[in-house]
Request: fold
Amino acid sequence: MSWEWIVILVIILVVVVFISLTVKIVPQQRVGVVERLGKFNRLLNPGLNILIPVIDQVRVFHDLRIQQANVPPQTVITKDNVQVQIDTIIFYQVVGPEQATYGISDYVYGVRNISTATMRQIIGKLELDETLSGREKISTEIRIALDEATEKWGVRIERVEVIDIKPPLDIQEAMDKQMKAERSKRAIVLEAEAAKQDMILRAEGDKQSKILKAEGDKEARIREAEGLRQAQELEGQGRAKAIQVVAEAENTRIQLLRDAALTEQVLAYQSFEALKEVAKGPANKVFIPSNAVETLGSLGAIGELFKEGKGAK
Reply:
């Protein structure tokens, strides 16, 4: 290879290096921190950016998306002296690239250490049962402590999750036995409660049945008495109506007799006319009331009546 080709290759290499140091393409959701002569100059936003070679240098690129940092399992002691192992995971986001670069050397490491220290303080104030049932409380208190510390680092804590809380093996076995005993107790209580409810419902049903039967009998007797009373009232009303009709008929008959001018003497005469017909019968004696005789005597007809009667004898 001649010297001319070597010079050309060197020039091409220098040009490529120059372009790579000058042109920077930053992808979306990433940002670069640019230092000029060792001092913060500006941020490289997503897109095409031009730098001055050698003078400008990109110190670091930050990912602006929400990221997660796993905190290694930590063994902590509860208030009642029980060792438990806790796994947590932290979700965070870089909101200040300049502070995240110059505020702390490694904000992920800092977040993990603060999370561990805060977790020890929180668990030390809780008993085992409170620790096992207080995941939400533990997560909230860790997030509050991290927010206070990471605000000046340009990092925002989005969420802290307690993944698992593991008590010692013997404690787990005791908890399993306690849980089984509690479930058996609950099952027995539920069975007893079901039997009690069954007896109550049956007794209630029997009571309601007897009440309904008694009410039915009562209603039947009331209706029967009411029917009898109405029947007696109707019967009495019928008798009263019949008596009234008979009385009215008698009154009408008397009124008709009066209208026909049937005096006492005419009635007596008609009576003796009837006796005359009676005397023609097989009887050999006829008794006449004394007042009737007096009445007929005044009429002068009694003599003939007796004559005819003796002749008939």
Observations:
- The chain has three domains: 3-62, 65-167, 169-242.
- The beta strands are 23-26, 30-36, 39-44, 47-50, 56-63, 67-77, 83-94, 155-166.
